């Protein structure tokens, strides 16, 4: 049985337990969220002992060589000596805060030290007590701040605290940036498909602004889906962008069209599509061979669309997806 | 003499073949149900590694052996007819990429040679 040494204490790792399980079961607080090897918020550093490939999957090479690993993916095969990863944390301050619609909160974070990222990557936002959640970056590095779109969930710990308790000037920490969901600028002529549900728009909006700013030449088609009209946001801004850039197409879509909302739609004088977003994508765009796709938001939709796009001829290497996995209990 | 791997065009050709092959597998009613819960990216990386190895390319396959890799599928009813289907789709994929028939045959033979391992016999 492998043991782990952490802050002077030694724990034995039971069969089928991860390092994260062992520490949590022994009453040690370790920040974590998705527990699926995606969000990287449970990252720890091994100072002694060898790590499995799986426990370092998805980490940047510079972090791997320094011994960082994902504790939720680590079934240790030998004894480890572990320290926490606090040196990776960057202090940030909330400098703006407003609602984008009835349940999406916008916050702007200023970072105190150098932080380089691409719009569309995500960060882990860490509250002083260690509560950690992943959020995608909707702003460009040139803005020197980080915009987040946060969906407020009825019993959501982080989202509710941010909307009700956190005020301007509030200090938090971030870790990251993480992920490969961003505009790389290497193929300017390639058509781009962007599909997001809910706050899945956050990374897509960032990627879109990046692509347009870098003068992307190929067509860009953005599908934003919500349950109903009140779930959409940034509608005017996106329609304006679609007017300004002839290669950009914006399709807001809702699953259900409620009568009282028809008025709001008419005021907009624009079309909002009704139906399942994946169906709308395939009805609107017939051939997608050679396209690049960005898929963000609801995990079921992201996974299912990824498969459908692949079967429709999009190369898997051209599909960039961020499933917004919920925190695990 | 250069390996089949080099003859058919190296890594880009293998990657393309694996993608096309996988599209066929996922839409073939005879076998697609075996792949319902499988992570496409990981599986394709393994298939590419395996194909590269059997074609004599730079060896990077680090997956399980064929017996271990398929053992858990026996309880789902894996049998000869499924192996036939897989080999048929593989050969079809390669022919569509204009790989010469004798090379297609060689690759099909390699796949055929794993049959007993795949079926744990
Ligand atoms: C890579 C990545 C990127 C992400 N980017 C964003 C982003 O840009 N914007 C954003 O708003 N979120 C994003 N998320 C989700 C985010 O990290 C949190 O999971 C979310 O904000 C909920 O946290 P919470 O503490 O408010 O709720 P929790 O306290 O974690 O959950 C409260 C309750 O809500 C349930 N719940 C969780 N998620 C959902 C859901 N989607 N729908 C319905 N019920 C749910 C939980 O099961 C629980 O019962 C991302 C997640 C990942 C993995
Ligand atoms: C004909 C010869 C075959 C070859 C050469 C072959 C090759 C491979 C390889 C290299 C792997 C990866 C092993 C690993 O996990 O490390 C694999 C996994 C797999 N194969 Fe095959 N295969 C063959 C036949 C089949 C057949 C007939 C089926 C079912 C129709 C099948 C279904 C699968 C599935 C579902 C997996 C993934 C298992 C998992 O990850 O749980 N294979 N195969």
Describe the structure.
The complex is a heterodimer of chains A (329) and B (121). With 329 residues, chain A is an alpha/beta fold. Chain A has 3 domains: 3-87, Ubiquitin-like (UB roll), CATH 3.10.20.30; 89-178, Translation factors (Elongation Factor Tu (Ef-tu), domain 3), CATH 2.40.30; 192-323, Rossmann fold (3-Layer(aba) Sandwich), CATH 3.40.50.80. Helix content of chain A is 22%, strand content 30%. In chain A, 40% of the residues are buried. The mean pLDDT of chain A is 92. Chain B has a single domain, classed as Globins (Globin-like), CATH 1.10.490.10. Chain B has 7 helices and no strands. Chain B has helices at 4-8, 10-27, 40-54, 66-71, 80-96, 101-113, 115-118. The longest helix of chain B is centred in the N-terminal third of the chain and has 18 residues, at 10-27. The A-B interface holds A 306-307, 310-311, 313, 315-317 and B 15, 19, 22-23, 26-27, 40-41, 44. The site of flavin-adenine dinucleotide (FAD) has 24 residues of chain A, from β9, β10 and α3.
């Amino acid at each position: 049985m492998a043991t782990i040494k952490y802050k002077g204490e030694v724990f034995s790792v039971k069969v089928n337990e991860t390092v994260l399980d062992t520490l949590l079961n022994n009453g040690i607080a370790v920040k974590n969220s998705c527990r699926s090897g995606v969000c990287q918020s449970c990252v720890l550093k091994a100072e002694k002992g060898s790590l499995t490939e799986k426990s370092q999957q998805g980490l940047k090479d510079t972090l791997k060589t320094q011994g960082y690993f994902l504790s939720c993916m680590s079934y240790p095969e030998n004894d480890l000596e572990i320290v926490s990863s606090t040196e990776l944390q960057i202090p940030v301050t909330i400098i703006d805060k407003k609602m984008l619609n009835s349940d999406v909160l916008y916050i702007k974070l200023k970072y105190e030290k150098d932080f380089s990222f691409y719009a569309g990557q995500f960060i882990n936002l860490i509250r002083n007590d260690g509560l950690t959640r992943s959020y995608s970056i909707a702003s460009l590095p040139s803005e020197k701040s980080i915009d987040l779109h946060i969906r407020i969930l009825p019993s959501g710990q982080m989202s509710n605290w941010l909307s009700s308790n956190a005020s301007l000037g509030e200090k938090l920490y971030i870790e990251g940036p993480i992920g490969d969901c961003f505009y790389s600028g290497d193929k300017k002529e390639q058509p781009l498909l962007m599909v997001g549900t809910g706050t899945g728009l956050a990374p897509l909006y960032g990627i879109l602004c990046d692509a347009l700013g870098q003068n992307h030449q190929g067509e860009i088609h953005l599908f934003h889906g919500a349950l109903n009209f009140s779930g959409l946001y940034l509608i005017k801004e996106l329609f304006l962008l679609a007017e300004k850039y002839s290669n950009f197409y914006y399709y807001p879509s809702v699953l259900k069209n409620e009568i009282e909302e028809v008025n709001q739609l008419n005021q907009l004088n624009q079309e909002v599509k009704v139906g399942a977003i994946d169906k709308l994508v395939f009805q609107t765009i017939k051939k997608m061979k050679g396209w690049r796709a960005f898929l963000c938001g609801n995990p079921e939709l992201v996974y299912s669309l990824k498969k459908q796009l692949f079967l429709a001829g999009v190369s898997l290497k051209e599909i960039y997806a961020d499933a917004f996995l919920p925190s695990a209990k | 003499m250069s390996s089949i791997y080099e003859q058919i065009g190296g890594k880009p050709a293998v990657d393309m073949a694996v993608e096309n092959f996988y599209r066929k597998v996922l839409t073939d009613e005879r076998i697609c149900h075996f792949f319902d819960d499988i992570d496409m990216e990981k599986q394709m990386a393994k298939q590419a590694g395996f194909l590269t190895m059997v074609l004599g390319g730079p060896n990077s396959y680090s997956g399980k052996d064929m017996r271990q890799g398929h053992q858990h599928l026996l309880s789902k009813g894996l049998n000869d007819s499924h192996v036939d289907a897989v080999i048929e789709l593989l050969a079809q994929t390669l022919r569509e990429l204009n790989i010469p028939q004798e090379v297609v045959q060689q690759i099909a033979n390699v796949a055929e040679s794993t049959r007993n391992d795949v079926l744990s016999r």
